[in-house]
Design goal:
The protein is mainly α. Helix content is 63%, strand content 1%.
Length: 333
């Protein structure tokens, strides 16, 4: 056993002896020695985890009869007075507006807007069940413990009456309220908010809302037969990729641009029949990246088995095609 191993074994034994001593303390002794107990634990865990004492310093520490107690004693002597650290903590809490519950600026802003709307009574429909749902929704969203996701709050603040929009789309059931809200936001996320039946505020429209509106209209122009679910499946797929890979949480960059370019290229090179088949891949959740879409279209146009496309995409067999239909620098036409 090396001196280093021996030293840390002594530290471990000393800490075990200290814990046995603490077990014999009464309640008053525990309270009186609480700071030392916490410091001993913190120092012990640090020493055993990081083993910070180098070989040169170890020669001195090996001379100590109770190294752990000695280190703790001097650590406590060197600790800064509480006002040196606590004043900074107090300043940080105020400066960063830290709260003891989860929230964000957008969530608080949305709640204020909806509370004003709710208190006006504009959502109190005559149907008894709707009144109940409105009251239940208000109880949940106005609770101090409920916090809207920052981006979800921005989405809802696009509407003239966000509480009415939630009320119209929420379905209380056996799920948790969080799951109920996630379902609402998923439904709203799939809509073209610029043509939906809810009034929006022109000065609050998010870039992604306009991007999605343009993408939906382009898909309708390119694909002969479209439906809400399939279009939403494709757009949500590429939206998620953009958020995950481009640090584009607020989607200020267009997440659909390359996807639409790829669709446009498929339409131009292969015509309506092939682009319809590519689009219909979304019905079975067989989704390909924009860089693979032309390759998939080329495979379908050659009479390929559509059921094999998912596996081929996973194996990277459609890679190498650009959105303008080129592979390996050669035009595929």
């Amino acid at each position: 056993m090396t001196d280093k191993d021996l030293f840390y074994k002594r530290i471990e034994e000393e800490y075990d002896d200290f814990l046995q001593e603490v077990e014999e303390y009464g309640p008053d002794e525990v309270m009186e020695n609480s700071e030392k107990i916490a410091d001993m634990k913190q120092i012990y865990e640090y020493l055993m985890r990081d083993k910070p004492i180098d070989d040169k310093a170890l020669k001195h520490f090996m001379k100590l009869r109770q190294p752990l107690h000695t280190i703790c004693e001097w650590y406590q002597e060197d600790k800064a007075p509480i006002y040196d650290t606590l004043n900074h903590t107090l300043w940080t809490i105020e400066d960063k507006e830290i709260l003891d519950y989860k929230t964000n600026k957008e969530s608080e802003q949305l709640k204020a807007i909806m509370l004003k709307e709710y208190e006006k009574g504009g959502t109190k429909y005559g149907i008894q069940s709707k009144i109940y749902v409105a009251d239940e929704l208000a109880k949940r969203v106005f609770s101090p413990d409920y916090c809207f996701d920052e981006y979800d709050a921005k989405v809802l603040m696009q509407f003239e009456k966000p509480f009415a929009v939630l009320l119209d789309n929420i379905e209380f059931g056996e799920r948790s309220f969080k799951e109920d809200m996630e379902a609402v936001m998923y439904k709203l996320g799939g809509m073209d908010l610029l043509t939906c039946p809810y009034a929006v505020k022109s000065d609050a429209i998010l870039p992604e809302t306009r991007f999605r509106h343009d993408a939906i209209n382009k898909i309708i122009d390119l694909v002969p037969k479209t439906d809400f679910d399939t279009t939403a499946t494709w757009l949500d797929f590429h939206r998620t990729l953009s958020v995950d890979t481009e640090d584009n949480i607020d989607l200020t960059d267009n997440p659909y641009e390359e996807f639409i370019e790829a669709l446009d290229s498929v339409s131009f090179k292969y015509g309506k029949d092939i682009i319809q088949k590519v689009y219909d891949l979304g019905k079975t959740n067989t989704l390909v990246l924009e860089g693979e879409m032309v390759g998939a279209a080329d495979y379908i146009a050659d009479g390929g088995d559509i059921s094999k496309i998912r596996e081929m995409a996973e194996n990277g067999e459609f890679e190498g095609y650009s959105t303008d239909g080129r592979r390996g620098g050669m035009d595929i036409c």
